[in-house]
Amino acid sequence: MDITIHTVFLPHEDPEASLAFYRDTLGFEVRNDVGKGKMRWITVGPAGQPETSIVLTPPAADPGITDEERRIIAEMMAKGTYGIIVLATPDLDGVFERLQAGDAEVAQEPTEQPYGIRDCAFRDPAGNMIRINEVRG
């Protein structure tokens, strides 16, 4: 079976702040920007990987979601437990320094994990957890 990851979705509360983080701090390409105000769907992705995208979406925009569900989503976003993505790089220390210099919220400095990886973690402007694994060649 030949399956790849094409698109993942992460919520945003402030489209301009999220766009700046993914474009300017992480260096991702902006592939699409649809909508207005807080109701914007922004597609970004790593340069050189056009087949892999992250869609930054307004949380709970679905009209079928109840007010209670919207409240729960907002609470989970505030804790950093609603949206999580794991990225990878061969230069963990360089990426960590760039993100830290860009005022990203550090959740964990580069650490050797007991399960065999070295990683770090940040939160994006919407509170999404961004974990970055070091790829060793």
Unreliable parts: none
Name the structural class: alpha/beta
What integer value in Å does the Rg equal? Answer: 15 Å
The order of strands across the largest sheet is: 1-4-3-2
Estimate percent helicity: 10-25%
The number of distinct helices, counting runs of at least 4 residues, comes to 3
Using the alpha-carbon principal axes, give the shape. globular
Strand content: 35-45%
State the distance separating the first and last CA atoms.
26 Å
Major sheet characteristics: 4 strands, mixed
Tally of strands: 8
SSE arrangement, N to C: EHEEEHEHEEE
Mean pLDDT: 91
Pfam families: Glyoxalase
Domain VOC: 4-135
Protein name: VOC family protein
Offer a concise description of the structure.
The protein has 3 helices and 8 strands. It is of the alpha/beta class.
Task: Itemize the secondary structure elements and their pairings.
Blueprint: E1 7-11, H1 15-25, E2 29-36, E3 39-45, E4 53-57, H2 67-79, E5 84-89, H3 92-101, E6 105-112, E7 118-123, E8 129-134
InterPro entries: Glyas_Bleomycin-R_OHBP_Dase (IPR029068), Glyas_Fos-R_dOase_dom (IPR004360), VOC_core (IPR037523)
Pfam families: Glyoxalase
Organism: Actinomadura chokoriensis
Could you explain the architecture of this structure?
The protein has helices at 15-25, 67-79, 92-101, and strands spanning 7-11, 29-36, 39-45, 53-57, 84-89, 105-112, 118-123, 129-134. Helix content is 25%, strand content 37%. The longest helix is centred in the middle third of the chain and has 13 residues, at 67-79. Strands 1-4-3-2 form a four-stranded mixed sheet, covered by helices on one side. Strands 5-8-7-6 form a four-stranded mixed sheet, with helices on one face. The model has no long low-confidence stretch (mean pLDDT 91). It is α/β, with parallel strands linked by helices and 137 residues long. It is globular, with a radius of gyration of 15 Å.
